[in-house]
Each structure stands twice: as structure tokens, then as C-alpha cells.
Amino acid sequence: MTEQTGPLPVVAIVGRPNVGKSTLVNRILGRRAAVVQDVPGVTRDRIAYEALWNGKRFTVVDTGGWDPKASGLGASITRQAEYAMRTADVIVFVVDSSVGATDTDLAAARILRRSDRPVILVANKVDDERSEAGAAELWSLGLGEPQPVSALHGRGSGDLLDLVLDALPEAPREQEEEGGPRRVALVGRPNVGKSSLLNRLAREERSVVDAVAGTTVDPVDSIVPLGGEEWRFVDTAGLRRKVNTASGMEYYASLRTEAAIQAAEVAIVLLAADEVISEQDQRVITQVIEAGRALVLAMNKWDTLDEDRRLQFEREIERDLSRVRWASRVNISARTGRGVDKLAQHLRGALASWETRVPTAELNTYVRALVQETPPPARGGRAPKIKYVTQADVRPPRFVVFSTGFLEAGYRRFLERKLRERFGFHGTPIEISVKVREGRGSEKPRG
């Protein structure tokens, strides 16, 4: 399978509330990522997930319920769904076949018929052959043949995915996101001040703030002016101690946090400077690193610390966050706004590192000199030779080292540290993988 690079094509799942869109998304992903409850309107925002079918990767966007007559929150959901339709490469329109086409479905179909995107009509909740008659009635929507599917039980989902792949273009259309605000995930354990920080940045009560930990359930997108430019912030539900011991909305909210990190380019991990760095804090940082996103650590409540606590906190950082010494760090107070304006320069710096590509010639000249000075340790009596290094990717930077033998983890960490010293990479994870090439022809007899 050839590795896809660049932006992935986008499939938007749209429909009125409670027709089973999130259940269908989970079926497509093969895991329970979207929040599903027997209550209309649980999904309030566009949430993007990466999916894979028959070797092809694409992005699935789960939208809030579409209602053309909605006002207030419902109108906002409608705008989210319409935005997804504008920016998608393929639209999957989900209708509840057990109910039939409602006035809302007919209104949505009228808009979709004018769309220049391919539209696939899904008749959901077709659990057996008897209920297929209800699916056939949806021809009346004028969107072609309805595809009978049971998102809950998986019936017909493979055929639907084949249709989706057939409808996807060779290359995704230009996204409105391109050149738009950079995407920032605001993450951290519950009650460290994420919503307060977002409100401070947005200069309005954009997120619900409550003294009760865990008030925020869904990520809420906000366009925020900061440092002379706009940023797209996603405020996320705090992660609980252990995902598998959480329940209900709390469990799915933690999955949403992961989805927000995946949808972002850079993450601000908020830590409470007046509290000990916890296992939960470490877990959030790990999620960002594993997702390969740029990282800024924001130490909140800095203004409340006395001199002793500041010294103690610096020691805790040195001890507990030694693995992310490369992360960009800023001390702030969400309550007073102190240091908050500095976030922009840290975000820009982390993103610049995240997108840095080192010219191959310069990279190899540096690594050759480095290896000559500090060669890899011998293993089994033979020292591996590093033949060549290339940067395979950016966002985050990924390097491949071609060697005649296995490189110890300690030496790979040494290489990473030296690459950071020489080329910067402040605020971004970097990945180093080793390809062992034992080519007999290239092996010279040891003298």
C-alpha cells in the first residue's frame, strides 16, 4: 500500500438529529469514537476522524443534526453541517428509514440536489429484509438509489464504503481551512482552567465555566484573535483518571479530546502551577506526542505562586517533564490575563519547527561528522555503520536512518538530541526510525 501524503479527502456525514449519524461514523471507523446516546442532539459540532477502507485513507466528518428551521443552538448546528457540506469531497446523507422522509429531510434534499458534490443517500436502521421496503420509499428524495444500511448492526456498511471510495476524487478539493486560521487544541486534565483561558482569549463567555470539574463535554470551536492573527481554538473535555473506568458521556468526552488533538496542528497543554504534576497531566502530554502534534506547555495560575512554590515547581518540571524538554513553555494566568499574549509567539515557533524540512545534503554532512566523532556502540562484536539519513516527512519531522545494523535506543535518543541542537525543532516531537540494510556487496572485510 502506498503511503498517502498531503491532505486526505473528506466525507461529511449529514442528516437531521437522531438518525444515527454518529453510530454510522463509529461503524465506518470500526471503533466507538463518536459520542452516541439515545438523545437527539448529542453531537453539536463538526468532529473529524481519520478512516481507512481497502487501503485508502480519508477523513470522516461527523456533524450536528441538520435542521433548516432551527433557531439558536439548532441554527448553529445547521451552519456547522452546511460548512461540512461545502468543504467535503463526498456527502453521505443519512435518513431514518423506519420513520421515512420527513419535511426536514425533504428540505435538506432540495439543498443537496443543488450541491456540486457527490451525494450518497443512506437509508439507516434497515436491520432486516422486511424493513427494506421503507428504504425503497426514499427514492422520492430525488437523490438516487437509497443504500440500505444498519449502522448499529453493520448490515450493508461494506457496500456503502465501497460506494464512498468510488465517489472520492483522486485528490481532495482545496479546503477552506488552507491558509485559514491555524488549528489549536486546548487540552489538560479537568479544572486546570481551559475554559477560563479560552474566554480570556476570546474576550467573551464562549465556553461554559463552572467550578465543577468537567463542565465541558464537547469541543467548542472558537476563532480567537491573538498576537495580530486569528487562531481556531478547540476547547475540550478534561481527561479523566482512566478512560476505561469512566462511564457514559465522560468516557466519550475523553475520546473527543483525542479527536480534538487529532484535528489540531498544535496543542496547548494547560498545567496548574499550584498543583503537583500528575499522572493525568503526563497522559495528556503523551497523547499529543503520539498524535505527532506541535506542543506548547502553558503553566496556569503562575501569579498565585510564592517564591518557594516557584522553585519547587521548576524542580518538578525538571524531574517529571524531562522527556519533553523540547516543548515550548510559557507561564500564564487565565484569570488575570498575565502572559497570555505570549502564547502567540510560542504557537508560531512550535508550528515553524513542526513544518521544518532539513535539506538532505546538509543533514548528511552534519550526521557524518557527528558519527565520526561519536560512532554507534558495537553490538555482538560489530559496530553498525550509518550509511545515509533522510527526512521522510514534516508535520512532525520524521527521519529515516539507513544503517548496517541495529541502533540502540540510547543512540537514537543521542541522534535526536543532536538534531534538535543543530536544527532547532523547538516545540515539536521528532521521530527517528532505523532501516537496517545488510547489503553483502557493501560489506567490507573487517581488518
Secondary structure layout plus pairing:
Blueprint: E1 10-14, H1 21-29, E2 47-53, E3 56-62, H2 73-87, E4 90-96, H3 103-113, E5 119-124, H4 132-136, E6 147-148, H5 157-167, E7 182-187, H6 194-202, E8 220-226, E9 229-235, H7 248-263, E10 266-272, H8 279-291, E11 294-300, H9 307-320, E12 328-331, H10 343-354, H11 360-373, E13 386-393, E14 398-403, H12 409-423, E15 431-436
Parallel strand pairs: 1-3, 1-4, 4-5, 5-6, 7-9, 7-10, 10-11, 11-12, 14-15
Antiparallel strand pairs: 2-3, 8-9, 13-14
Commentary on this structure:
By secondary structure, this protein is an alpha/beta fold. It has helices at residues 21-29, 73-87, 103-113, 132-136, 157-167, 194-202, 248-263, 279-291, 307-320, 343-354, 360-373, 409-423, and strands spanning 10-14, 47-53, 56-62, 90-96, 119-124, 147-148, 182-187, 220-226, 229-235, 266-272, 294-300, 328-331, 386-393, 398-403, 431-436. The radius of gyration is 25 Å and the shape is globular. The chain starts with 9 loop residues before the first strand and ends in an 11-residue tail after the last strand.
Question: What key phrases describe this protein's structure?
Answer:
6-stranded mixed sheet, 15 strands, alpha/beta, disordered N terminus, 21% strand
Radius of gyration: 25 Å
The H/E string reads EHEEHEHEHEHEHEEHEHEHEHHEEHE
Described by the principal axes of the CA atoms, the overall outline is globular
Return residue spans where pLDDT drops below 50 for at least 5 consecutive residues: 1-5, 32-46, 174-178, 205-220, 235-250, 440-447
Q: What percent of residues adopt helix (DSSP H or I)?
A: 25-40%
Widest sheet: strand order? 2-3-1-4-5-6
Structural class by sheet pairing and helices:
alpha/beta
Largest sheet: 6 strands, mixed
Sheet-strand content, in percent, reads 15-25%
**Average pLDDT score:** 79
Distance between the termini: 42 Å
Our count of helices gives: 12
Total number of β-strand segments?
15
